[in-house]
Amino acid sequence: MTRVKGGVTALKQRRNVLKQTKGYRFGRSTKERQAKEAIFHAGMHAFAHRRDKKNDFRKLWQIKIGAATKTLGVSYSKFIDMLKKKNIALDRKILADVAEHHPETFKRVVKHIS
Hints:
Order of helices and strands: HHHHH
CATH topology: c-terminal domain of poly(a) binding protein
Shape: rod-shaped
Structural class: mainly alpha
Number of domains: 1
CATH architecture: Orthogonal Bundle
Number of strands: 0
Radius of gyration: 26 Å
CATH class: Mainly Alpha
Largest sheet: none
Distance between the termini: 83 Å
């Protein structure tokens, strides 16, 4: 069987790894082994933080809704409870947007459920 030299493939893989670590500090951007490890860890953090982002947005929506309801004399928890009892299916994302950009509409929603 004939011999196959792997220089071209190895160089391409190395180039791709180092291209992904552009901007990293110290040896993580220039040394192949450290760069591979940095990519691996970065991928793990990216995966976890994509999940965390959803929690962060939900917290933000709760804060916006809570601030809007407080000005109308209702607590956040009582507002959400009244929504559930009246079977109004508005999620927190929509409610936060309405509270921030359309306060008159939000005021009508609060008056309708109380």
